[in-house]
Amino acid sequence: MFNRKTPKKAPPRELTPWELAQQNSPTSRVEETVPKEDVRPPKREPKPKKKKPESKGITNATLLKGIFIVCLAWSIYFISPLSKVSEIEVVGLSQVPAELVQEKDGIVKGQSIWTILANRTRTATLLKAASPKIKDASIELVAWNKIRLNIEENPAIGYFKTEEKTFELLADGQTIEVEATLSTEEYPELVDFTEETQYKTLAKQLEKVSSSIIREIKEIQYPNDIKNHQKIYLKMKDGNRVIGNLKDIGDKLVYYPSIAKQLNGKKGTVDMEVGIYFTPDTTIR
Asked: Residue ranges of the POTRA domain (predicted)?
């Protein structure tokens, strides 16, 4: 067989001066000896979540203590004088006797306030039924243990007599029999009125007038004039006379105090039928 000759290795090539300089430089030596480190950003570990503080709930013992304290305070209040009526005040009375209200309201000192307030509707009903002069009534607590009764009256605005009986005309138009000895200084006498409708119309008109003006009227007469069935005459306590119409006398009478002031003591007749004018009395010598 054929013998193969191994090829001879070529002699190493001589390095150029540039290559020798690069090979012997310190930079190239460091790069050859020091391996490059793998520089990577460190992994961030997740921050631990903050735990919320556990809320302390109301324990059963605390709740029971609170209920016990409230019940104890309420019990002490109920047996104390603060829960009992110490003063009763009645306001709004003018013609209704205070004794009548005290008799019918059923409220006494020392009574439980809460019992009175719970029955306030019933008490108001009893008071309204006690007298036709009581239009409305209400009860309120105005202090720790002070009760106030508010009375709204349905007052008398006139009186009249038939034979031996005396009647009052109330503000709502109804008439009630009263004792003949009753004082009638607060309202006028009604003369020659014959029909219920006349009384109701007059009551509706006088409702527009203040009680101070009504007190200044001595008498109201219905003459049943043929020409004017609405005409009425009023005698005033100051000596003047007033002529007016039944259907609108209330609207005109509200001006009487200012008119009387302008007269400066003169006496005469104030005509309120059509407009308002004054005729002085003539003195005959």
From this structure: 83-154
d(CA 78, CA 184): 48
Question: Which two structure tokens, joined as six digits, stand for 187?
Answer: 């309202």
- Read off the pTM: 0.69
Q: Which pair of structure tokens corresponds to residue 254? A: 């509200």
| Residue ranges covered by each domain of the chain | 79-151, 154-278
Average pLDDT over residues 198-222: 94
Q: Which fold has domain 154-278?
A: Rossmann fold (3.40.50)
Task: Tell me the C-alpha distance between 110 and 85, whole Å.
Answer: 5
Give pLDDT tens digits for 247-282.
999 999 999 999 999 998 899 999 999 889 899 987
Does residue 211 contact residue 153 with C-beta atoms inside 8 Å?
A: no
> Which residues have C-beta within 8 Å of that of residue 56, sequence separation ≥ 6?
none
* Maximal CA-CA distance, the chain: 196
